[in-house]
């Protein structure tokens, strides 16, 4: 297996992460390597045994994928080069011949389980949740040791599971939110930025230098003062410093946009602990327009005016 032609992802085949890989032009012609979890996928990239990893970043129902956010915050050198959105639909699968009213235990990835609670409580009251590592691993728990020793009666899984496992679908579209989707990121160790597209996103992780009233406001002012839309902010605890938090930020714009460069300089002056995760094309273009005062042309005109004052 050529490390330069290998991309790691949460496997096995048939997961939503694999569906995200199918959307990535960079994955065409590469070998797709299934791994057990996000950390293993990113460790492959750091070690050079894979050229990239596809990881889940955020779910529209459950929020940020904390394992991914924490790994990106603590594993140096990683860069996001693209994001991809996959609509989320879930099915309940079981071994052939299983009736829905016979299901007592349901295997599911915790995120998938959280997105199907209403349906489960309505259709399978009193069921027991069996945690699984992925939406395909849940089915493997059903198929393992069939009979009296079966680990689970049914599994929450992807609609395309029958392409990969010999199971029957007991129910389709069991998710509670029909608009659910998951955002995935393609991560590499490269330092070359994707070209500006005009519909870009810049991701950062920032730790405030000290706890003080208005500390977070000072950070956000660096962004708002440059006319930049903050499309996502999440806080994650810093394990080594109980009671302290780091902030995961997504900004509209590219590092090569003057307003974004200026904001990053301001953020870096405010905090010495800034992790730049990359500037890359958004999966969906922002609906928030950039105020004309913050265009590259106006930044250039202002710089020329300032230089003229020194003559």
Automatic annotation (TrEMBL):
Entry keyword annotation includes Lyase: yes
PROSITE patterns xref list: ACT (PS51671), PREPHENATE_DEHYDR_3 (PS51171)
Domain ACT: 204-281
Protein name: Prephenate dehydratase
Top enzyme class: lyase
Pathway(s): Amino-acid biosynthesis; L-phenylalanine biosynthesis; phenylpyruvate from prephenate: step 1/1
InterPro entries: ACT-like_dom_sf, ACT_dom, Chor_mutase/pphenate_deHydtase, Preph_deHydtase
Record keywords, A-Z: Amino-acid biosynthesis, Aromatic amino acid biosynthesis, Lyase, Phenylalanine biosynthesis
Gene: pheA
NCBIfam families in alphabetical order: PRK11898.1 (NF008865)
Pfam families reported for this sequence: ACT, PDT
Catalytic reactions of this protein: prephenate + H(+) = 3-phenylpyruvate + CO2 + H2O
EC number: 4.2.1.51
Coiled-coil region(s): none
The keyword Lyase belongs to this UniProt entry's keyword annotation: yes
Domain Prephenate dehydratase: start-end pairs: 6-189
Any one GO molecular function term: prephenate dehydratase activity
């Amino acid at each position: 297996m050529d490390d330069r032609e290998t991309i790691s992802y949460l496997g096995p085949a048939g997961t939503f992460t694999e569906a995200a890989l199918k959307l990535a032009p960079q994955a065409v012609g590469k070998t797709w390597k299934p791994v057990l979890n996000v950390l293993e996928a990113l460790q492959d990239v750091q070690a050079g045994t894979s050229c990239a990893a596809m990881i889940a970043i955020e779910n529209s129902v459950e929020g940020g994928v904390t394992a991914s956010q924490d790994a990106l915050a603590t594993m140096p050198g990683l860069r996001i080069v693209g994001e991809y959105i996959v609509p989320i639909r879930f099915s309940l699968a079981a071994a052939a011949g299983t009736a829905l009213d016979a299901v007592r235990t349901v295997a599911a990835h915790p995120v998938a389980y959280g997105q199907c609670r209403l349906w489960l409580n309505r259709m399978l009251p009193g069921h027991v949740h069996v945690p699984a590592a992925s939406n395909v691993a849940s089915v493997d728990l059903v198929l393992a040791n069939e009979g009296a020793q079966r680990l689970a009666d049914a599994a929450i899984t992807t609609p395309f599971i029958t392409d990969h496992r010999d199971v029957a679908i007991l129910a389709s579209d069991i998710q509670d939110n029909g608009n659910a989707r998951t955002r995935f990121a393609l991560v590499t160790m490269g330092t070359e930025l994707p070209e500006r597209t005009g519909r870009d996103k810049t991701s950062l992780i920032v730790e405030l230098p000290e706890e003080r009233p208005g500390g977070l406001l000072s950070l956000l002012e660096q962004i708002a003062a440059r006319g930049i839309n903050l499309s996502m902010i999440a806080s994650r605890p810093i394990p080594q410093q109980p009671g302290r938090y780091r902030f995961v930020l997504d900004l509209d714009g590219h590092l090569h946009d003057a307003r974004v460069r200026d904001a990053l300089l301001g953020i870096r002056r405010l905090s010495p602990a800034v992790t730049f995760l990359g500037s890359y094309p958004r999966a969906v273009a922002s609906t928030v327009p950039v105020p004309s005062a913050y265009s590259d042309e106006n930044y250039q005109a202002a710089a020329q005016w300032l230089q003229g004052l020194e003559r």
